[in-house]
Design brief:
This protein has one helix and five strands, in the order ββαβββ. By secondary structure, the protein is mainly beta.
Length: about 60
């Protein structure tokens, strides 16, 4: 995951998700995580998974 204050940080998007398949970190909106029934797709390996299957979720 990037360090806090990274120039790559997206404003207003504070939820990080770690892919259960490849462990890559990426941003998602909190609304998608809160719904729980919307499949997320990892931009690194293209794995599709529900938020409950994420390796880890970090809210900012």
């Amino acid at each position: 995951m990037s360090d806090e204050g990274s120039p790559h940080e997206k404003d207003g998007n504070t939820v990080w998700v770690s892919c259960p398949a490849c462990a890559a970190w990426f941003h998602v909106t909190d609304a998608l995580v809160d719904r729980g029934d919307v499949a997320l797709r990892c931009p690194q390996c293209q794995a599709s998974f529900l938020p409950g299957e994420a390796r880890e979720i970090i809210r900012g």
